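Many introductory courses stop at the sequence. We go one step further.
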Amino acid sequence: MPLSRLVAPLFALAFALCAGTPATAAEVAMTPTKDDMKWLLPKTPPSPADNQPSAARIELGKQLFFDPRLSSERNLSCASCHSPLFGWSDGLPTAKGFKSKVLGRASPTVINSGYTTIQMWDGRRATLEDQAMGPMESMDEMAMNLESLFTWLNSNPSYKAAFAKAYPGEAIDKTTTSKAIASYERTLISADSPFDHWLRGDKKAMNASQIRGFRLFTDPAKGNCAACHSAPNFTDNGFHNIGLAAYGQPNPDVGRFAIKPIASLKGAFKTPTLRDIALTAPYFHDGSATTLTEVVEHYNKGGVTKTDLSTNIKPLNLSADEVKDLVLFLHALTTPPDADRAAR
């Protein structure tokens, strides 16, 4: 029998065995699993029945969001603290308000706020509509007299026309102004990051270190980050005391406890989304961490102040390489600045 007739079946058998050999665990981990698909955001966030989005409402909301004339001294707008230049935050440890007063908490990003079920660090506002007018009314922030504001809006031809188009037959008042701003904020979406591209099948969108970081992030026995920063928006919309150093000082900010006085909420603040997190330094509600490495190291040592610490905060014992992988993964959550961020 010719040698070729003996060898050919052996090659065929070897090929069949290789083709049927399952990928190793390491190989599987480098590609998205079916369970990983839960991290893909819905195309658009939900809107209330009485404030469904329209082009006119979104455009009016955008105009209001960037207009400093909505503040008493006409020098502050919503975008002063939520600027696209700083990941829709302000780049400061804590916000500055009326007459440059330094406030007690950082400006949270409004990116993906339409997907969250409760607003603000302490959760005192349920919806974007509930929250929108708060800064204007606050004497610490925009310090605007609402009666004066609506007198002016009703006398401004451009705004009168815009409101009539967006909310025909409705008054120009607190309700419609809040609705318009909320409509615009719901278009500020980050869902086109390297991580999203990787989930959708682009194997080159994230490198090996970033993929390892994602696996650490979701592993309950390692990083366990997803216990609070859960899918799909990297937040559980819950409140946790993460053991910041400031909570160990006299008269600390008690966070959610001031709104809902339950012992487990002492010093607890809302879990922020991690979408675009590389753009929103400094970090935490008090701006006390300047880099993402500092953030990961804080969790790695199990926090600083142990009083009233949330049960999920424990030393992680991650190696230096694992910390690096986690940080690089967090950088993969940024949607490029030239991407279309509008609701799709």
